[in-house]
Design goal:
single chain; four-stranded antiparallel sheet; globular; 9 strands; five-stranded antiparallel sheet; mainly beta
């Protein structure tokens, strides 16, 4: 039984520094998913449903009016992948169910969209960024990244051709 997804993350210390209680994945905005043939691996790019409190974020995030935290969740040893439909523009629920042999079943099923797969039960979290979402819900705006390397390389989301961002978490 998985009580919280962050328990599976091997590197959740950054999230724990930003949140007193890390939000669940019950109502996230799924921005994209990236398949990496070398893994086989899959990375979800999501906006968490709650923003950290003002006492937990760097002052520049608060000063810039940021209201959304985005991150990548990387799943390794992916098998049994099924994808139907198109990514919805509304929040989706990501469910994780424990399986035998340290595996998990990951499933997103919303109106007109289904993504499911099994993976290792060890997740990696990365490319954590903060931004102010637009009225249309777009994330194509300047982002402030937690990682020093991401901060030096990017001021907003790079194009999907940027393998250093989408293939490495």
């Amino acid at each position: 039984m998985i009580s919280h997804w962050a328990e599976l993350a091997v590197d959740s210390h950054l999230l724990r520094s930003l949140y007193s209680v890390i939000p669940s994945l019950e109502s996230v905005h799924l921005r994209s998913f990236h398949l990496d043939w070398r893994g086989p691996a899959l990375t979800l790019r999501i906006d968490l449903p709650a923003y950290p409190g003002p006492d937990r974020v760097p002052p520049e995030w608060f000063e810039r009016g940021h209201d959304t935290l985005q991150l990548h969740v990387h799943f390794a040893a992916v098998e049994d992948l099924t994808v139907h439909g198109w990514i919805p523009s509304f929040p989706v629920g990501v469910s994780l169910a424990a399986l035998a042999y340290r595996r998990v079943l990951v499933r997103i099923a919303e109106a007109g969209f289904e993504l499911s797969f099994t993976s290792s039960d060890s997740l990696t979290v990365g490319h954590i960024s903060s931004y102010r979402i637009t009225e249309t819900g777009s994330d194509e705006v300047p982002h402030t990244f937690v990682s020093r390397l991401d901060t030096r390389m990017f001021t907003s989301l790079p194009g999907t051709h940027e393998s250093t961002f989408y293939e490495r978490v």
